[in-house]
Amino acid sequence: MATGPDIPEVPDSGAGGAGSPGVPPEALPETWQPLLGRPALAELLGHPLVGAALTEMRRLLPPHVAVHSLRTFLLADACARSHGTAYDRVGLLAAAAFHDAGLVERSPLGRGGFPCRSAQLLDAFLAGHEVGMGRRTALTRAVREHMRPFPARDAGPEARLLHFGAWLDVTGRGERLVPGDRRRLAALAPTPWFAVSFFARVAACGLRRVLPGSPVTPR
Q: HSE-up of 84 (CA within 13 Å, CB side)?
């Protein structure tokens, strides 16, 4: 992985410990373990919100999509480290865990397509863990906008990093910013033909628009 200075992390806001507990890291799928052992992930595994997000990811996502989500976070973190970008690490991991949840869910998709549905699922999860509205808004925006061709000009660090990690893992775009990281992560946790299957899922969703829908409303 790319090396760099420690990230000046955004302070954790919200309780983050309410809701259902997560399973122990060793009980998570074997195919995840090489990625969970990477320092950027390993040092977060004791956080209650991280454990709960990984547990939900195991429940919601097919194995290869879950592996993509972990690689997305690691690539985003590598980019942040290389640029010294402060961001909500725990929150971004939760966002990465949910960013494709709407793609595999069977419920009807409304305006904004699967990214909007993914953001709704993330918001319900974060609300259940008593995460504050400001933090939820930033993280759900990141998920809603991750399929845009490029991040919005006013996008925050979480939205920019999630966008970077997801696009790099699937398409290779941005690899020059973290040279070799995509290849190393793919060797640790391979998902052959993932890009083909991903875009087939998008087509099967009948996705016509991937721009964000309406913002999160207070509960």
A: 1
CB 84 within 8 A of CB 7: yes
Q: What is the pLDDT along the chain (219 residues), one digit of tens a residue?
A: 544 445 555 545 444 555 556 778 889 999 999 999 999 999 999 999 999 999 999 999 999 999 999 999 999 999 999 999 999 999 999 999 999 998 887 666 666 788 999 999 999 999 999 999 999 999 999 999 999 999 999 999 999 999 999 999 999 999 999 999 999 999 999 998 787 777 777 766 664 344 444 444 443
Helix (H/G/I), strand (E/B), else coil: 179: coil
User: Given the structure tokens 């391979």, which residue do they identify?
Assistant: 190
- Whose tokens are 């991280």? That residue is 50
Burial 41-53 (b: 16+ CB within 10 A, else e): beebbebbbbbbb
* Exposure string over 146-172, b if 16+ CB within 10 A, otherwise e: bbbeebeeebbbbbbbbbbbbbbbbee
**Distance in Å from the first CA to the final CA of the chain:** 39
Percent helix / strand / coil, the chain, rounded to 5: 60, 0, 40
What pTM was estimated for this model as a whole?
A: 0.84
Question: Cα angle at 140 between 118 and 183, to 5 degrees?
Answer: 70
User: At residue 51, what is the residue type?
Assistant: G
